[in-house]
Amino acid sequence: MKKKVRLLVVLFFLAYSLAVYAASNDNNVEWDGLFHDQGPLYFYPQVPSETDNVYIRLRTFKGDITGSTIKYYDSADGNFHYVDMYWVKNDETGVFDIWEGVIPGSSSIKWYRFRITDGYKTVWMNAKGIYDNEQDFGDFWVVPGFSTPTWVHDAIFYQIFPDRFCNGDTSNDVVDGEYEYLGDPVIAKGWDEPMDGVAHEFYNGDLIGIYQKLPTYLQQELGITAIYINPIFQGPNNHKYDTQNYYLVDPHFGTNDDLAYLVERAHSTNDFEGDYRVNIVLDGVFNHTGMWHYWFDKLNWYSTLGAYESQSSEWYEYYTFNNWPDGYVSWWGIETMPKLDYSSQKLRDEIYRNSDSIIKRYLQTPYNIDGWRFDVANEIGMNGTNEGNHDIWREIRSHIKSVNPDAYMVGEYWGSAVDWLGGDQWDGAMSYYIFTNPVSKWITGKDTHNNLQSIDTQTFNDYIVQRLAEIPRQAQLAMLNSLSTHDTARFLYRADGDIWKLKLAAIFQMTFIGAPCIYYGDEIGMTGGNDPYNRWTFRWDSSEWNQDIFTLYKKLIKIRKTYPALRTGSFKPLLVDNTNKIYAFGRWDANHRIIVVLNNDFTDHTVTVDAWQLSIPNGATVTDALTGNQYTVVNGKITVSGLWGHDGVILVY
């Protein structure tokens, strides 16, 4: 009886294998069967040390190829090396062969690609795709010792613009006419008053307000695990990007003790049943200061002599003057933001080298923040330029990681950040290039600043796959994926108020590689155009919320937390349908295989996706994590009927 059962099982998988794809040694490599990425099933250890051998696995159709070789370039000797791969096993469905090769351990960075043969036919595969001819660019990275904080890989970020989130302490409020900003008296607005869009108007959100909403709203109701806060250090305007004093929390946001208390409570796990740690990341503006900073003191606010006031100032070397005093270099020519000059060793000491430097100070007791987001990070440099930028970041990284190896370093850069993400500078970047812009153009037909720029489904896939491939795996997991930020028009505004488009984008955001970051209020349907109209106050009257999108965000956050495959698993596009505007992809690890299907059309569609690509067996039942609806795998495929326009499913096996 047992023999008969075994025979039936074998025959079942054989039939399933043949029904899905018949492969053989026929001088033709079947591209649909090839797969490799650096997820835990295909690359280990995930963070190799300088002595660890790196085990690399390749998937092919069963019996399809006659051999495979890993070709890698070693930066240590400047040469290519070759490693033969050997057959390891079949997958559980019998559809695929798994091959393995080993790159010997060393401290050097390496890049690798695959040469795959079937008889006299050869194809090449790297991180960007499969080709008939060998490609010079787009290889997979091996970066020994490069690790990014695992808490970031698992995080759900929430971005807060402090003046507009919540007023928790009215005693520190800005008062009408309290002081002047560039000749204009400051304006104190009521929370619900309309915005004039000027930098000297204040709605009086503060750190205590963030604390008050932390356990009740952010943790228990929404489920976020990390907060990125826009600048909080003293400055005379509402955005604080032209700093007056790095050592002082702006008095209208609270005190330094309030910051320490906020972080302490965020790190606490005892405030309520099921409490968990929330990590805090501050915005570091170290490319420039404000002209009112005491180092510069253009307006003579301080008794000390700033660089603008005297060439004998102890801070004169912190800035670049082509012609003192008015010929100073500023950020993009904006006179209120004089640029810092990192040719000054003293400046470097004060910003990041000294044990009590500005960057280190907030990483240590009593503040203990969990990382920095660095403003215009690509522009930091010497002599009024970005000269020496990469060397400066290498220094900053070594000093930050010496204080806290798990501190998050995320740089602001709108293009390809590959030059900063090789393991020796940033952990990740704000993912405008890989995530934010492609998603916006595909779903809304506009770029992040609301300009008409539409891309089709194929272009969308090409953008995210090829751009993701440019950077190492550890950096991919540490990219900050936002739909909106303080520097973009809100997503719902770009979508012309179509909440379904925001829903579709949120589904992709919570299932894609990288750390999702919600810009405050997106989750309740807030809208607004480009800066400053993307910075309206949070609407705390829940009757004003779009409850459908809020419910969806809560559900998506819970789903992402439940399935590690959505955070650190493999990623593979499964369907790119330009005609019907359908995009489907897989995320999987050893425990779960998940298929995400997105319908970017205005009309409903029936969609069929290849489940066999994720080794989901014939007859298996998968469940949509969003609705609970179930689907059965038939002939290696899953069919979703009547998928609504601008909606999606998350099918879990």
Short précis:
The chain is of the alpha+beta class. The protein contains 14 helices and 34 strands.
Topology:
Elements: H1 2-20, E1 43-44, E2 54-61, E3 67-74, E4 79-84, E5 86-90, E6 96-103, E7 110-118, E8 121-126, E9 129-131, E10 140-142, H2 150-153, E11 157-160, E12 180-181, E13 184-185, E14 187-188, E15 201-202, H3 207-222, E16 226-229, E17 233-234, E18 245-249, H4 256-267, E19 279-284, E20 321-323, E21 327-328, H5 345-353, H6 358-363, E22 371-374, H7 389-403, E23 408-411, E24 428-429, H8 432-443, H9 457-468, H10 473-477, E25 480-482, H11 491-494, H12 499-509, E26 515-519, H13 547-562, H14 565-568, E27 570-577, E28 582-588, E29 593-599, E30 605-610, E31 621-624, E32 630-632, E33 637-643, E34 647-652
Parallel strand pairs: 11-16, 11-26, 14-15, 16-19, 19-22, 22-23, 23-24, 25-26
Antiparallel strand pairs: 1-2, 2-6, 3-4, 3-7, 5-6, 7-8, 7-10, 8-9, 12-13, 17-18, 20-21, 27-28, 28-29, 29-34, 30-33, 31-32, 31-34
Helix pairs in contact: 3-4, 8-9, 8-12, 12-13
